[in-house]
Amino acid sequence: MERRNFIRVMGVGLAVATLTSTLSRYATNNDSIDYGWDGPDDSKSDIYLKVLAYAILCPNPHNKQPWLIKVNHPKSFDLYIDQTRLLPETDPFYRQIHIGQGCFLEMLSIAATGLGYHAEIEYFPQGEYKNTVLKSKPIARIVLTKHIKIDIDPLFNYILTRQSNKREYDNSRLTPDQKYQLQMLFMKTQSSLTIHDSKSDNRYLQHRLTEAMVIEVANKARDLETIKMFRFNDQEVQQYRDGFGLEHSGVTGIKKFMLETLFLDRKETEKDPSNFSKQSVDITRSISGSSSTFAWITTKGNSRLQQVKVGRDYCRLNLTTTAMGLAQHPMSQILQEYDDMLPLQAQFKQRFNIKAEQTVQMLVRLGKAKKTTHTPRRLVSSLLIS
Ligand SMILES: Cc1cc2nc3c(=O)[nH]c(=O)nc-3n(C[C@H](O)[C@H](O)[C@H](O)COP(=O)(O)O)c2cc1C
Known about the structure:
It is a single chain. This protein is an alpha+beta fold. 41% of the residues lie in helices and 16% in strands. The protein is built from twelve helices and eleven strands. 42% of the residues are buried. It binds flavin mononucleotide. Flavin mononucleotide (FMN) is lined by residues 59-63, 96, 99-100, 103, 163-164, 166, 244, 329-333, 375.
């Protein structure tokens, strides 16, 4: 399905039917609530729904979609973390969940420009909290203001095609010019981007990233957290509209059919995840081995605000690589904070002279690969709370 159609069917289009009652209290002067992608719609009641329909297409950990929106006014709303959608085993301090909030804010802000609005974002309007705890306070307050002559962010054009590409790549390196373009993106950010593509670095990373997956799946609770978000067939994709399955990693057609029919079974896998774990390790070995450029985003410090801002930077990086025709895939295991991972993480940081006070927030491989099917999204209406 075309991404544009996808968003209409999966997001705004279907949301219309279910949202009417929720929205009627925000609609002024009996504005009809009229959505659609084919023409401008100036009704006051739905600009934030359109903006949100783009925002939910952002990258986010395990495609959990951990966002809640409290609408204060047709053009002002607060973003909260959906605490029923966390990853406590692999993201024990909710760092990645906060990065996912930043991705949402960046996508929203870019989408607003494409719709003729400026999104003013106030971070942590009820106060920030420590990076070891999670509080039920909003991550941001967003106010949309219409601008007749707004500069449309050029990345707006790539929202509907961006993806995390989990396929095998073709071992091509980025050109010096491509690396320069990506480095330029981080000239004005608080976070920094490091790119590695030497043979020895690649070999080291391919081994360590695979080892990180071995560590991750050695614990059943961690493994089950991933299995819970793995979609074993199309029916699960349609039912849950989150997570990811074979086709989102590029396995399609007869191979997908055979694997799903003959080998993949949720009940069996949850009872004994050993085969699933082995596959995860094998896939990590082959995808990292197919990649010859790795990059990471680092911050000095690791506050909640920095995590959210890194999410914004990461989202821009992903949209920029999309614009450049590159594939991008996060590989986060080695960055995770549970005890078993810390020795390997320390080794990795030492190998690349990353100082103790620096946090590697995102690690990705970059390269060339065919596109995959997009991961699903829930309805915008399921994000709204009163
Ligand atoms: C903080 C963060 C960490 C992620 N870590 C991984 C990872 O370790 N492995 C992976 O395959 N994808 C990872 N992803 C990508 C998500 O799985 C992906 O964004 C999500 O499934 C939605 O798919 P999409 O980006 O293609 O729209 C990560 C994304 C974010 C924002």
